[in-house]
Amino acid sequence: MFRSWRIGRIFGVPTELHWSFLLVPAAILGYSYEAGFGLRWSQVQWWSGITLLLFLFVLVHELGHALTARSRGVKAEKIILFPLGGGALIPEEPQRIRDEVLIYFAGPLANILLALLALPLLLLQPGGAYLIQFYLNPFGNLIVVPSPLEQILGITLAVNAVLALGNLLPAYPLDGGRILRAVLKRPIGERAATVITTLLGIVIGGGLVALSVSLGDPVLGLSSLFIISFSALELNRGWQRRRLARTVMKEVLRSPLSDRIYATDRVARARAVFAKTDAKVLPVYSNWNELSGFVEREVLLREAHRDQRVQPFYEAEFIAARPTDSLLLLTERIVEANVYGAAIYEGGTVVGFVFTEDVIQHLDRSPRRFYKRFTSPT
User: Fold this and answer.
1) How many other C-beta atoms are found inside a 10 Å radius of the C-beta of residue 154?
2) Domain 250-365 carries which CATH code?
């Protein structure tokens, strides 16, 4: 779903194209086809040019974020461009709220500067005032015939104005929503700020969906659904973090099995051990009964022959923790290290294991318990 391809480094920032760009040529051909006339190549050239312009405007927007982040000492890992937008991947939030506001405002500001650059150039054209009125008013009527240059300037003005104003809406994950969340963090806390901006994202996104239906604008509709979906995901992510922060580790802790899997065991024996439990991942030990890593049930079923040793199929990397550690922080460590789970030690002895699968199931059971509480007969 998130596959992308590197196209190079722009001002030192790695830049990638999302796989959905493969749909762009089909969209161009679709817009260029006219019933009864077939494919109009002049329209193919026109829409290809418009696509390139939009690509450049979005790229400038994301470079604004990335380069400002770099100037504030914050790493911008890469830029990913989508047909309807893009994203500058900034793994760590700035420590100072001022830096966070500047980074997220830099994208819309870059589009505002492009619009302000096109504005006087368009005014200098014959009938420039009418052209500006037309391009900034989607319901207006064009009373002059623009030249190709005037069309480029008009589109530059209109698209960058829309990108700037649209991204400054106070709705997550738009820049305006991120700025609002940064400003609200200090007075009301990060949790409340996130809830407010994500709920605004859902409400504003819903309003934009209704507007797209009334205008018959599918692009606006898709963009609105993007806002709603990402707001809902972030809201759910916040709920999951709060749930994990309140969860005691013993709720997801798996006790060690008496029947152990050793790295030198045959796969057939390891499969037999898995058959006695519902675990999807189990620990693997050395011949000295020391924990060596974890092996996944599906790996042994799909990739291994029953007479092979377990050793080539287990992952030797894992996280170590204590029973008193925060489950939220431990889960984040597991995800960051990209491992199956963690071994929980107490007094130098392994007392159990925490696997990502068990954490996911625990989070999945929570809303079900909530639902049953209010739907069960009294």
Assistant:
1) 21
2) 3.10.580.10
DSSP states of 265-326 = SBHHHHHHHHHTS--SEEEEE-TTS-EEEEEEHHHHHHT--TTSBSGGGSB---EEE-TTS-
Please check whether residue 78 is in contact with residue 133, taking contact to mean a CB–CB distance below 8 angstroms.
no
- The pLDDT tens digits for 144-157 are 667 778 888 888 88
| pLDDT for residue 43 is more than 60 | yes
- Contact between 43 and 27 (Cβ < 8 Å): no
- Is 20 in a helix, a strand, or coil? helix
Mean pLDDT of 65-71: 91
Per the document, the length of the chain is: 378
Interhelix angle 218-246/190-215, rounded to 10 degrees, is 160
Locate CATH 3.10.580.10 in the chain.
250-365
Phi/psi at 319 (nearest 5 deg)? -100, 145
What pLDDT score was predicted for residue 285? 93
For β-strands 38-39 and 261-262, DSSP reports them as unpaired
Whether 106 has a pLDDT exceeding 90, the answer reads yes
329/30: higher pLDDT: 329
Flag whether pLDDT at 348 surpasses 80.
yes
At 192-232, the pLDDT tens digits run: 888 898 889 899 989 988 888 888 878 778 888 888 888 88
Q: Is residue 108 predicted with pLDDT exceeding 60?
A: yes
Axis crossing angle, helix 97-123 with helix 148-167, rounded to the nearest 10: 160
In Å, how far are 42, 56, 151, 218, 323 from 115, measured between CA atoms?
Answer: 27, 13, 14, 24, 57
Are the C-beta atoms of residues 260 and 283 closer than 8 Å to each other? Answer: yes
Q: How far is CA 189 from CA 149, 177, 192, 194, 231, in A?
A: 50, 15, 6, 9, 18
Tokens representing 206 are: 């819903």
> Please, what's the b/e burial string for 206-215 (b: 16 or more CB within 10 A of its CB; e: otherwise)?
eebbeebeee
Strands 261-262 and 281-285: parallel
